[in-house]
Design a protein that fits this description.
8 helices, eight-stranded mixed sheet, disordered C terminus, Rossmann fold
């Protein structure tokens, strides 16, 4: 039986694509008969308990870093990694895993590599997005900046040192291989949907069909975050061909549009905006997004 210790940025009960993919991976590994153990970084947030049980999974927690270093630019990342490294070694000595499996970002990978080498345990790294590119998409840095180049070097160093690299798509795999990593050292485990986990609406809501004119139409929709790495530009490029087919309805919705207003919320109208060059075949939908 394989015993795997996962090192995570954050986990359920927080909700994000990251946490849902993680939970699915853990359950599938357990279905294979593996034993899985799970440690989150200080990014999980303040916690007073050494572990937390959520949906049948136990997550070891790492306390927040404290001190002057943790409040300084760059210093806070160094303090986070130091804090995670100490907690990871502690948990690894307790659960005695056969392998350490680090997940994005590189702030998890570097401590995992140090602990794995110290304890003589193999270490693998799953890259869901490169930290430097995610920062560009989030608007916190620019491509080619000093921060961008430094982070890229850290990521490259990490993937050179681990025993194997996993990633979520062929595009990221190509980027990793282009950095000099042997192709056989990189495996793609794509995102997927377990349709058995969803109860599909049957029959469709007559009220919604009437409100939006959906009767007899094929509905194409997206609900999620509007970041460049989601690939929505490809879907938008495809829309002219899609809407040539009759009876097509499409909508886009930002996850922000699903948040309930709070006293600190500010409304925007940027969440949904679709236009059509084919009257009657495609609907324009607008919705108010709530940002907090």
């Amino acid at each position: 039986m394989i015993r795997t210790l996962h090192v995570l940025d954050h986990s359920i009960p927080l909700h994000s694509g990251y946490t849902f993919r993680t939970a699915a991976l853990l359950r599938e590994q357990r279905a294979l008969g593996w034993e899985t153990f799970h440690l989150t970084s200080p990014k999980q947030g303040e916690t007073s308990a050494p572990f937390e049980d959520v949906d049948g999974l136990r997550f070891y927690r790492t306390p927040l870093a404290t001190g002057t270093l943790s409040k300084l630019p760059i210093g806070k990342e160094l303090a986070l990694m130091k804090q995670l490294e100490g907690r990871l070694e502690e948990v690894a000595r307790e659960v005695r895993p056969d392998i350490i499996h680090a997940h994005s970002p590189v702030l998890n990978a570097l401590p995992a590599i140090k602990v794995a080498r110290k304890l003589g345990i193999p270490v693998v790294y799953e890259i869901r997005a490169f930290w430097e590119d995610a920062a560009v998409d989030h608007g916190t840095t620019n491509e080619g900046s000093l921060r961008y180049r430094a982070t890229r070097k850290l990521e490259t160093r990490a993937i050179q040192q681990v025993d194997h690299v996993f990633t979520i798509c062929e595009g990221l795999r190509a980027d990793i291989v282009a950095r000099g990593i042997p192709a056989e050292k990189v495996t793609v485990i794509p995102n997927a949907v377990d349709i058995a986990s969803f109860n599909l609406a049957s029959p469709p809501s007559a009220e919604l069909q009437q409100k939006w004119g959906l009767a007899g139409k094929t509905v194409i929709g997206f609900i999620g975050s509007f970041y460049a790495y989601e690939g929505l530009d490809l879907l938008l490029d495809a829309l002219p061909a899609i809407i040539k087919k009759p009876r097509i309805f499409a909508f886009f919705s930002s996850a922000a549009a699903l948040k309930k207003p709070t006293s600190a919320s500010k409304p925007t109208n940027s969440a949904l905006k679709i236009t059509s060059s084919s009257p009657g075949a495609f609907h324009t939908v607008r919705s108010t997004a709530i940002t907090t």
